Every structure is written in C-alpha cells, then in structure tokens.
C-alpha cells in the first residue's frame, strides 16, 4: 500500500510539473469564474451569458434573446474574466474553455486575433531552442524517424505514453472491426501534452530522405483510427469544420492554430507572428481532435486534413479556405521544414518559480490584456443604443442581429 502511495505521488508530481503556470497578470478562466461568482452582479451577468451560449448550441436565438445577451456582455466589466486564458492539457481544460467562450460570444470563427491558450515566454523560448537544435543536426543517411522512435523508447515517460496511444488506436471494439476513435484521440492528446517536445516533435516532424522513413512518419499518429474512415471516403471539409466548432476543445485548438499559423510575406519565418515554433505547437494541438491533420504521403512533408470539397456548392470557396490552412500555408510549411530529428534528451528539472508581482502590477497587466475586450463592449453599447435605427453600421452587429439591421435599406432599395 505504501509502495502504491509513493508511485501515485510521483505520478501526480510528474503531471503537475509538466504544466507551466500562466504568466503573472493572466488568470486561469476557472479561477476567474470563481471570482466573478463571488460578486452578485457579475454572477448574474455571467449566468446570462452562459445561458446564451447553451441556447446558441441548440438553435440560433431570437432577436429579443440576442439583445439580452449583448446587453449582458456590454455590462460585464470583471477584468480577470475578460482577459482569462487556458492551458493545453490542464486537468480542467474543457471547463476552462467553456468559461472562455461564454464571455466571447462576439468572437467569430474566422477571428484570427485571439487564442484561448496562453504561451508563456519561458515555454516558447524552450520550444525555440528545440527547433534550433533540431535544424542544426546533420542528416547522415540514417532513418531519422526510426531514431526518434528509439529515443522515445529510451525515455520511460515517452515510451509508456506512446505505447498507450498505439494500443488505444489499434485495439478493436469488441464485436466490430473498428477502433474506438474517442479513446484514440484522448491517448494521442495525452502523449503530445505530457511528453517533452524534444521527443514528441521529433516523432511528428522527423525529416526523411526515403519512402520507408516517410511511411513511418505518416503512420506515427495511426491514421487508420485517428482520422480515416473505414470505407476510405473523405468527409466534406465544411462538415468537418462544423463538427469541430460544436466541440469546445476542437474549436479552441483550431482557433489557436489559426491564430499562430497565419502566413506573412514580410517575415523571415513566413509567419505573421514571426514564430514558427508556436505554429508547430498549435499544429500538434490539433492532433487528437476531429480536425486531425497528417502527411499526405510517404514521399513529402506536405500536410492536409482528411477531407475534400466535393458537393460544397456555393460554399466551395469557403471549403477551399479550410484546405488551404494546411496545404497552402507558408508559415506551417516553413515551420515543419526547419524541424529536424530530436536533440539530446533533456535533463528533467523543476524550474524555480517566477517572483510574484505586486497587486498593482497585476491589476495593470489585467487592464492592458482586457483593453480590447472593453473596447468591444463600448462598441456594443453604441450598437444597442442605435438598434432601433433603420440600419446598423457595424458588420459585427449585423451578423449578430440580422433580423434588426438594414431593413429600411432593403425595403427602400426594392
């Protein structure tokens, strides 16, 4: 019994230390929710917003309900909740994400300016060092993906979690010829969230010069279970994205990917945020969701979603945009191409905690982070005050209040 207790304590410590805390001044959304619910006015407004989100998941709300939702959002001024973030792989990640989206009912699916996740400078610096070390390693003809798998096996945590997801993704459901995709996805996410990037990224992005290596790389995430359909048919990309948007975790990982993998012709990395490191992490975050991407074949480093645009009709261009996020993305392509085989295995150590800032510094940080949210609320107040006017002048308001906007223009034009 004592031995089991020791093992359990070691496991818990390993899980906790693998998740870096949020930077000072940014609160976890679950903690921000607790703070809001301690205040009667904030609690009432937040309850309204949660109701709005739950109703939106069932069916688009009517005009009156939309106005009530916008009024609640406009009146909410609790800075920790407006500026809160979440952590990938945290124990309460899905709860945190529900809170995050509840106070962001205005953020559209195409909004590339925000991610639910916060990447600390320390973590990004560590990721950048991994990519830099990997890209400097020479390729001497060896099978880099085989070496990455061997390195993973030598590290107990990587080896055990890799065996866990391989088993989950290859084991057949009793009485059927297919796997349990949900269990496969969960095990894949656990591997990518718990294993250091030196190993996980080495397996995902190992460079290959022959098809044998390329096939090992392509099969790393067990495509036959993680995303391919049993009949070999590809779903429509619009349907795939629609399913993703109804899932809080998938929606958040996709928003993070869109935010961090935007292309730019004015950056050496090809990335708008000039950090291919963050793009790689966001790409890996999609693996184990409805929108799991992978390599197209064993002879290329090109990646794509398992979907097509057949039967898209008048949504064909929108469907192509989904495909191009992966197939025509200079930021993602450059980020993957700079990644080599895994550098030497890291020495596990616990970083000393950062000094805690003063309450005044925290408040200033929160104010800066929430400035954009409050600006949106100011715009909302103006929209609400003019909602009875014949036409709305904001594209955001028009999208949220289609029944109330631009009626007079339509009638006068007809």
UniProtKB/TrEMBL annotation:
Name this protein carries in UniProt: GDNF family receptor alpha-4 isoform X2
Signal peptide per UniProt: 1-18
Location(s), subcellular: Cell membrane
Entry-linked PANTHER family: GDNF FAMILY RECEPTOR ALPHA-3, GDNF RECEPTOR ALPHA
An example Gene Ontology molecular-function term: signaling receptor activity
Family annotation (InterPro entries): GDNF/GAS1, GDNF_alpha, GDNF_rcpt
Pfam family name, one: GDNF
Keywords, alphabetical: Cell membrane, Glycoprotein, GPI-anchor, Lipoprotein, Membrane, Receptor, Signal
Membrane topology label: Lipid-anchor; GPI-anchor
